[in-house]
Task: structure prediction
Amino acid sequence: AQSVTQLDSQVPVFEEAPVELRCNYSSSVSVYLFWYVQYPNQGLQLLLKYLSGSTLVKGINGFEAEFNKSQTSFHLRKPSVHISDTAEYFCAVSAASGSRLTFGEGTQLTVNP
Amino acid sequence: ETGVTQTPRHLVMGMTNKKSLKCEQHLGHNAMYWYKQSAKKPLELMFVYSLEERVENNSVPSRFSPECPNSSHLFLHLHTLQPEDSALYLCASSQTDRGREQFFGPGTRLTVL
Result:
């Protein structure tokens, strides 16, 4: 079975600062990894995904994530955040051979002016 | 309509009422899911349907009754709910029920009085 840990429940940052949201996973097999964003009172929207190939994955809204197999991590980064990036971010993992998604507990990103 | 739609977006009901939540996906997917999202709690997977067959039921109380009449529609029938059932109910779909990303609807915000 797979599991995922989001290391920070809340991350406050100032506008135009860089941000990193941390995600570590546990699995004995190859994995697929995902980041989702949820704005208030909305569903989850896929930001980016790693299935195979390049370990640096670029997503929507200027976000990117790097798959690090040795550290079992998939941290999400943005070089300069905007107020509109304030939302909850979820990391998710599934086995590449086929399993359901397992979600982390979420990280609330708050961007302050 | 595109993507995954859910109706109603908001619902207030008494503990003795019977209501239904509706989900429709326009993506040609074969798997559909119900999740419960409560404040300060992780996302809870409730039910999974694959090719219209229920393949997972995560110990959900019988006052929640899912129905999947075809691969595009999913319902959640509610009866004699409790105040602790108040939450955001999210519907999702995916190409298959294993391995790949899920696409979420906007959710139904349910309040049980």
Summary: Residues 86 and 111 of chain B are 5 Å apart (CA to CA). The two ends of chain B are 32 Å apart (CA to CA). Chain B touches chain A at residues 4, 6, 42-43, 45, 48, 56, 88, 90, 92, 96-107, 109 (CB under 8 Å).
